[in-house]
Specification:
The chain is an alpha/beta fold. Helices cover about 45% and strands about 15% of the residues. The strands form two sheets. Strands 7-6-8-5-9-11 form a six-stranded mixed β-sheet, sandwiched between helices. Strand 1, helix 2 and strand 2 form a beta-alpha-beta unit. It is globular.
Length: about 375
């Protein structure tokens, strides 16, 4: 009996000790612990989705110093600021994520989330977008061409369908392309026989039509190709002259209303869908037509700056063909447009009406 009383007293003492330990803040290590917050934005875990940072990659083939790249970086910075750091877009320049020719596949396959695509080089995929690259239609600057494209998107369901598999961030063009050469080019007879570096699409086709020998390679090889006599000329816009430091190798620049090459800033649709609606709204407010026009104005301003620099610093000669000289280029350009209409017209798409509308808009937005 005596031993039983001692046992009961011992059990009671142990129970009291455990109770006192718990009351004083003792911790049960087996209890579930609240995970530490690893999200950027200072969340305590109560609303982590609102603090999540969406990190996106943007691929572009020009160098980090090129004016288009600088514009893209400025846009990315604006998005980050407007979303309070919740959307971070890293611009990968110089083709580090995808080359110019691989950019479209990269955004489709989500190698990158966003890509700046030069639509001319993707044969058959953006024929209606490329209407502003038809030669000698009266389009002669980026802002004009960009306005034409955006009005056409309102006008043509077929054009909208061409871009429907992507989130369209922006669509704009480069500045008017010019003929840069080692010898003067005033009319079609003076480009005939020259070896001319061109990009795919309209420039390559027109080089053939005008009697030149087209050569297609990356613009980064233009400088050395001119120096070594591999080519006599190339077609590019003024900002491209600056981006690749071409002032020293080609003293002649022939300006005529040739064409403006379209660019589309395209985003992978899955990447877009993963972003919450409140952030999508902010991105939309800083994208679309307004952003595209701003990019076009930046491009035209850069073209004016480079033209002035070419003349004042490098002593370049700017050639402005007169009407008679321009007329020597027109027959081939007009035939090219007729062939484009025949190629792209279908039972459900009136290609002639589409081109007529583009030319009407070109006149509307002319300087």
């Amino acid at each position: 009996m005596k031993n039983l009383k001692k046992t009961l007293a011992l059990v009671l003492a142990l129970v009291l000790c455990v109770s006192l330990f718990a009351a004083c803040g003792g911790k049960n290590n087996d209890a579930p612990q609240k995970p530490a917050n690893t999200q950027t934005g200072g969340s305590t875990g109560e609303n982590e989705e609102d603090a999540k940072v969406y990190r996106l990659s943007l691929s572009f083939h020009d160098s980090s110093q090129a004016h288009k790249t600088v514009f893209l970086q400025k846009w990315a910075d604006e998005i980050k600021e407007a979303t309070n750091g919740r959307v971070e877009i890293t611009v990968y320049a110089g083709g580090t994520l995808a080359s110019m020719t691989d950019a479209l596949d990269a955004v489709k396959q989500r190698t990158c989330d966003i890509a700046m695509c030069y639509t001319n080089i993707f044969a058959g995929q953006f024929p209606l977008t490329d209407v502003v690259s038809l030669p000698m239609t009266g389009i002669n600057n980026s802002e004009q061409a960009t306005n034409v494209l955006w009005d056409l998107m309102d006008y043509s369901e077929a054009l909208r369908d061409e871009l429907k598999n992507f989130k369209v961030i922006g669509v704009f063009t480069n500045a008017n392309n010019i003929i840069c050469s080692t010898k003067p080019v005033h009319d079609q007879s003076e480009i005939k026989g020259l070896k001319v570096r061109v990009s795919a699409g309209t420039p390559a086709d027109m080089a053939v039509a005008w009697g030149a020998t087209p050569m297609t390679f990356a613009p980064s090889y233009i400088f050395q190709s001119v120096e070594k006599g591999v080519i006599d000329a190339y077609m590019i816009d003024y900002p491209g002259v600056d981006s690749y430091a071409l002032y020293e190798v080609t003293p002649y620049y022939t300006e005529m209303p040739f064409f403006c090459a379209p660019f589309a800033i395209l985003m992978n649709q899955d990447s877009w869908n993963e972003i919450p609606e409140d952030l999508q709204k902010i991105i939309d407010e800083h994208s679309g037509r307004a952003m595209s026009i701003a990019a076009a104005q930046d491009t035209d301003a850069k073209a004016d700056e480079v033209r002035e620099l070419a003349q004042t610093k490098y002593g370049s000669t700017i050639i402005y063909p007169d009407d008679a000289q321009l007329d020597t280029f027109r027959p081939a350009a007009e035939q090219y447009i007729k062939d484009w209409v025949a190629k792209n017209g279908t039972e459900t798409f009136d290609a002639q009406d589409y081109v007529d509308k583009a030319m009407e808009l070109a006149e509307k937005y002319a300087d």
